[in-house]
Amino acid sequence: MAEKRSTYLRLFLVFFRIGLFTFGGGFAMLPLIEKEIVDIHGWAKRDEILDIFALAQSVPGAIGVNTAVFIGLRLRGFLGAVAALLGVVTPSIAIILVIARLFSQFQANLYLTRAFSGVKGAVVGLIAAAAWRAGKSAVMDRFGLLVAVLAFLLSAFEVIPVVWVIILGGLSGILYYRRQGGVL
To answer: pTM for this structure?
Structure first.
């Protein structure tokens, strides 16, 4: 953990870099966000970032954008949320504007098509690594493992909407630990 101080500019720049170097959507951002926020800047602990990821997934919107907003809000209030939001979306907006302008030229480029095939595979690997790290930190017992497996199956096979998977996970945790004599 190199530093703890956050400024509006630093929040913007950290999330700008994350937005610039992430391909494949919001979930692909999670490993980069975790590394920047936990390991490099020390703005949150690993268990805290997992809570932020869970919260960001449970509200409407892209998880990467939601995560940036929650972290910015937590560190610097409303303006911190705005700085992080602008940082994470600015690269995408700029790149999309350029691609839209040049789309017809890119569409037929064989090298670019092949490059994106490789990028897609790399993104899957990054997401799997983030899931592995999250699982090691978040699954503490057999009950947690059972909830994780059921959540995976319910969402992988699209049995119910993701928001219901999260709600059911939370409710099952409350009920299970209440029965185990936990405080609630």
So the answer is: 0.64
